[in-house]
Amino acid sequence: MAKSGKSPKGKKITLNVAKNCIKITFDGRKRLDLSKMGITTFPKCILKLNDIDELDLSRNMLKRIPDSISKFQSLRWLDLHSNYIDKLPESIGQMTSLLYLNASNNRLTTNGLPVELNQLKNIRTVNLGLNHLDSVPTTLGALKELHEVGLHDNLLSAIPTSISKLPKLKKLNTKRNPFLQPEETDVFLDNIKRLDNLYLVEAKDLCGPCLKKCQQAREKLNKIKSLVPGTPKKAAFTNLIAPNSTAKESQEEWR
Predict the structure, then answer these.
(1) Residue 149 has pLDDT above 80, yes or no
(2) Given a cut of 70, is residue 5 above it in pLDDT?
(3) Mean per-residue pLDDT, 170-183
(4) Residue 126 — pLDDT band, cuts 50, 70, 90?
(5) Averaged pLDDT for residues 4-16
(6) What are residue 31's DSSP bridge partners?
(7) CA-to-CA dists, residue 150 to 74, 117, 135, 195, 234, angstroms
(8) Residues in domain Disease resistance R13L4/SHOC-2-like LRR (predicted)?
(9) In the chain, N or C terminus with fewer CB closer than 10 Å?
(10) Nearest alpha carbon to residue 140 among 155, 160, 112, 111
(11) What is the dihedral of CA 64, 57, 107, 229, to 10 degrees?
């Protein structure tokens, strides 16, 4: 007889199962791909595979990432998007080899982002979109190697200037946030829009046709900016489990 009244258990990941999920990327990296496997609890057995370069735990039902994840000292790429995570572990700051972190489409709040994130001195890409952040931690401003930052679809009313001053920043996605006072951040938001669509180069480094194309794109952005007075308040996706259409588009852009 089937048992009733109990919620279904997530898939159990054994060491052998995990070993069979290791793939070699085109550039020779070892990636452990445990995405879309219905995992509800972080599988501790994978800590024995701490020589991997990339770890994909996306599209599961994880609520917590343990401090022991810092044992992956060689990890360069960590994908946690589309889970139920509301807090990142403080030990993540010890993963100094990390270049890419995707924690989008979770339940992260600003308090759930540890100060220790500022120790990730080599990180290039951080995606925190589709969460519940009401402010951006200033610790991100200490990550001087950042090239891309995703903060789209949150509850942000302002962006710290320290983010815009990151020396290597090429892309900053802040779409669909309820900026309450756009008139006070007009210049900064204009910079965000340009960063979101253009790579930063000097005019002297472009050929004639490319320079003209960039100037036309800039004029188009300015025209759009003058027509749209503000950004509408976003809906809160409190029960989002897997990416919806917006999330899917975001993942295509950020993966």
Answers:
(1) yes
(2) no
(3) 84
(4) very high
(5) 71
(6) 23, 54
(7) 24, 15, 13, 12, 16
(8) 32-132
(9) N
(10) 160
(11) 160
Q: Name the more confident of 100 and 196.
A: 100
3-state helix, strand, coil in the chain (%, to 5): 35, 10, 55
pTM, whole model, 2 decimals?
Answer: 0.72
Strands 77-79 and 148-150: unpaired
Residue 139 has pLDDT above 60, yes or no: yes
Q: Please report the domains of the chain, with CATH numbers, ordered by start residue.
A: 15-173 (3.80.10.10)
Burial of 205 (C-beta count, 10 Å sphere; 0-12/13-18/19+)? exposed
One-character DSSP codes across 107-141: ---GGGS-GGGGG-TT--EEE--SS--SS--GGGG
**Residue 232: pLDDT above 60?**
no
Cβ of 247: how many Cβ atoms within 10 Å? Answer: 20
Structure tokens at 251: 């993942």
Q: Where are the alpha helices (DSSP H) in the chain?
A: 15-20, 161-164, 186-197, 208-227, 245-254
Q: Which two tokens stand for residue 68?
A: 């022991």
Q: Residues, the chain, total? A: 255
